[in-house]
Amino acid sequence: MKKFRKVLDGLTTSSPGGTLGSPSYSSAAGTPTASTPREIDVQETLVSENFQLCKTVRHGFPYQPTALAFDPVQKIVAIGSRTGGVRILGRPGVDCYCHHETTAAVLQLQFLINEGALVTACADDTLHLWNLRQRRPAILHSLKFNRERITFCHLPFQSKWLYVGTERGNTHIVNIESFVLSGYVIMWNKAIELCTKTHPGPVVHLSDSPKDEGKLLIGFESGTVVQWDLRMKKVDFRIYYDEAIHSVSWHHEGKQFMCSHSDGSLTLWNQRNTARPFQITFPHGKIQKDGRKESCKPILKVEYKTSRNSEPFVIFSGGLSYDKAGRRPTLTIMHGKAITVLEMDHPIVEFMVLCETPYNNEVQEPYAVVVLLEKDFIVVDLTQSNFPIFENPYPMDIHESPVTCTAYFADCPPDIIPILYSIGAKHKKTGFSQKEWPITGGTWNVGSQTYPEIIITGHADGSIKFWDASAITLQMLYKLKTSKVFEKPKPGEVRGGDLVEEDPYAVQMVSWCPQSRIFCVVGISAHIILYRFSKYEANTPIVSLEVRLQCDTEEVLSPSETENQPCFPEPGSHSPVQASPGSGASEGVKDSIPCLKVKERPVRVPPGYQAELVVQLLWVDGEPPGQITSLDINSAYGLLAFGNSNGLAVVDYLQKTLLLCLSTLDLYGAADPYQRLTRSPRKNRQSTSGRLSDNQQSVDMERSKSPTSGAESRENSFSRSRSSSVSSIDRETKEAVTTLQFGESYGRKGDAQPTPCLWVGTSLGVVLLIPMSVPTEEEERLEEPVTIGAVLLMKGSILRLAFLDLAGAIIPGPHEVWRDPNGPEDPDRPRRRKLINFSPWSSQDGCAEGHLAVVCSERQAKVLLMPSQACLFVHNITESSFVLRADVVTACNSVCLACFCANGHIMTLSLPSLRPLMDVNYLPMTDMRIARTFCFTNGGQALYLSSPTEVQRITFSQDMCENLQEMLGELFTPIETPEVQNRGFLKGFFGGNAQNLDREELFGEASAGKASRSLAQHIPGQVGMEGMKAAAGGVVGDLARARIALDERGQRLGELEDRTAHMMTSAETFSKHAHEVLVFFTFLAQIAAIKRC
Predict the structure, then answer these.
(1) Which of 16, 161, 455, 789 fits as disulfide partner to 467, beta carbons 3.0 to 4.6 Å?
(2) Where along the chain is composition biased (Low complexity) (predicted)?
């Protein structure tokens, strides 16, 4: 060991032969810093035209929802949010997100039923008309109210006039086609009696009478309800009630309506007698001992729906008594004498009853209730007596526990999704309605350019979710709970080693090898769990490996003293390192204890991912372990590497042993590029199985200015902490390991063949190259130790490391082919580890002479030629900000370096020349959530957590942007509007049919005049209605719609002819019966006259 130390010290006095001088940096393009060898002639095919940034689709539950609407003919639903977003959902695959330019909250949504349009009313008192006849909805018109605040909107079915109630109590009327105000206004002082001394309050309800479209029911907040005759411009009747009104709902016959009030009561009113309510009920108010009703919470909304074959449904939210503290929000369903109370997990924002008919004057026949909660979206089946909920096909439970990390894998092995789905399907919840999901609008087809994609989300409760993200959809495949690995603390027990009080199992990062199905999870309590996938259940113990990775921050030793302080651990046995909790600790000081306790007994685990090894960092002399900042796993080598702000550790997970445990300074030895005084590591209280070969250990170093030295400052808009795991690193005294990468590389300049290596990047801009000797034979790999040594040092604030061959293609890392660890044994075919791409250069012509290494830091990128370690290209990525995420990915059948900066810019650089190809100011960094969850993947795609409940996917590939229209679903499909039900001769004869209203005659400019220009301002959209319809689908779409329209017209003409013939027959029959009635009454009159005589 001393001999190796002297080798490291001797390198500091000599000039490394392969080091580079300081290159002349350029922020415009990659700058060659060495003469490029003739054989490095990569034909780069990427140009700027290959890149275009656009959003693809948004998954998850709409964050902070505020409004809900449903189109009963198209069968699509719209959800508005507090940040101005609108989500439109149809059948699975039909999911569209659109956003207002302003961030004003969406107060109300109104579909133009079966017209392919949507009206949104926002908190900035603006109405917007959206065109839904295209895959990407767009605003056609906007109307900004200047002097009044919008409180309620109502759009009658098949009407082009929108009623708008305001905070002042006035009701305005807007033409939907032109989006201008009518001169017809219902002023509040005309709606109430002149003797009334108080203002009735804002308008909280507007609806037309089912019996007569010319009668408008206006509800004011104070408890006043007025029926306004639109033709006569006067009040038919007024209702005064002592309690404030929250909502009103009509009976379909138009003779009764029901109101919900702030005292938890429901009042039923009859138009024949409006002096007092026909019925007053307190559904949840009981009579107390003193005879008084107990006080109840307000009923915020009520729906009164009728059914042909059963009693009416009265459905409302709220109304519980105040004395029942802690009760969850409820939705109450009153059906006849039966009252069912459905408790919700979250507060109710809005609900809507889905009915068979869009006409309000017909029997409604409700079949479901859509309930929008603050953090969930459910649909209740009303056709079954127990009112089960439908199984939600949308990924609305991403935020079931807060998302703490994400990973995105494109072009996965094709067999991984079906097997994950089959395992996860066994654990799905039951008890759902057997009927199909009722929201079935829109059309969607799987695009032609689809490939297997998987998104992995880690959560605060320690759970992991695997999602199928193929074809821009999202469906959960499998859920894994990492907390089951650990013992649960007993009630009242406080663990002495807890690192965090809340969410001790929260997931910080994941590492997954899809080929070998090895999966690693890093938790916030400084632990790592390694999982293997099996299709069979198992009952095996979990091996625990405890690691002391801590540096002494107090003792500062001189360089001479380090001769007697070895920085590498002494060789030891192959047994796993087990430290008993509390060993070696002084009284009252936490030492050698982990943060969590692993289950000691064998654990029975179901098929799926099964825990095999848990690595935990220990407390040292009262200091908690540093959170893990980097992780990499290689299934071919059987090695797991991780690092934090204290150092680096390498674990052999096949032999369950610790190979290396070093502080970052100890990796340098005396060759520290920053000339820091070496701190001694903690007294090593563990043994490892690592062994160093003296003939492998040498260090070549490159030293120049660090792009992220401690003296540099960050932008005020973003913290210096780049992730939750790198939160308190002192860049002058501590050096965190920020990235790790296993791969086949050259340990030193003279090597002729690549060997297994571990590349280490640190927070101070240093890259270390550690070669390893990994036995390749099955028996040797499980028995012989892996040897490790430090070889290369180079500069750069490291975020990402990747390897390219000399043709410019990504070199896939070596991996093991998956085999089921619990599968049945075959005596004829012994189970052996099958390795793929263990030495990727050996099968490529001309690539055995070297490879390219891509190193990306917070501010610059480099391309190195191995094994000469020559820097071929260097590029300054940003001067005013710093890179948060970087990755080498495929795009447009080539390779590029993609970067996401703290100032919101997304950039792409060509490889290996590092030419800038795209630089788009996408979004500003406002919080750590985006920085923690942003990730790139192959195919020119990326994702991030746009809100605590939503995942936004984007693409920067021009090819995918062009094919996006094909991949998205159609929101609008041509459907014939249902006909009005035949109400029968006698009901129509005696006045049962609703009276039609010529609204154009009443509200048009000819009769009502023009509205005041100062009242509202019209803001036209980018194009008009006709232009948007023409541009919706291009020529092909127009021809298809024209063909459908012709077919519909022909069909309607045929139906009209049949109806005309039927009406003529009915008229002849009616004439015949009328004549018979006339003859009969004439005969009776004659008999009566004869009797009188």
Answers:
(1) 455
(2) 10-27, 718-728
Determine the distance from the C-alpha atom of residue 257 to the mean position of all C-alpha atoms in its chain, rounded to a whole number.
41
pLDDT, one tens digit per residue, over 236-251 is 999 999 999 999 999 9
pLDDT per residue as tens digits for the range 146-190: 989 999 999 999 999 999 999 999 999 999 999 999 999 999 999
Strand partners, 377: 372
| Other beta carbons less than 10 A from residue 908's beta carbon | 26
Residue matched to tokens 């240093």: 766
Query: Per 3-state DSSP, what percentage of the chain is helix, strand, and coil (rounded to 5)?
Result: 15, 40, 45
Q: How far apart are CA 75 and CA 438, in angstroms?
A: 8
Residues 6+ apart with CB under 8 A from 138: 98, 130, 131, 1021, 1022, 1023, 1028
* Tokens found for residue 816: 């093991």
Strand partners for 660:
650
Helix (H) or strand (E) holding 420: helix 416-425
Q: Which residue has the tokens 């013939």?
A: 1061
Contacts of 812 (CB under 8 A, 6+ apart): 837, 840
**Residue 722 DSSP symbol:** -
435-450 exposure pattern, b = at least 16 Cβ within 10 A, e = fewer: eebbbebbebeebeee
Question: d(Cα 771, Cα 792) in Å, to the nearest integer?
Answer: 9
Beta carbons within 8 Å of 85's beta carbon, 6+ residues apart: 62, 63, 97, 98, 99, 100, 106
Give the whole-angstrom CA distance, residue 657 versus residue 638: 11
Low-confidence ranges of the chain (pLDDT < 70): 1-30, 32-40, 291, 324-325, 447-449, 491-499, 501, 551-589, 669-733, 776-796, 826-831, 837-848, 925-926, 982-995, 1022-1058, 1093
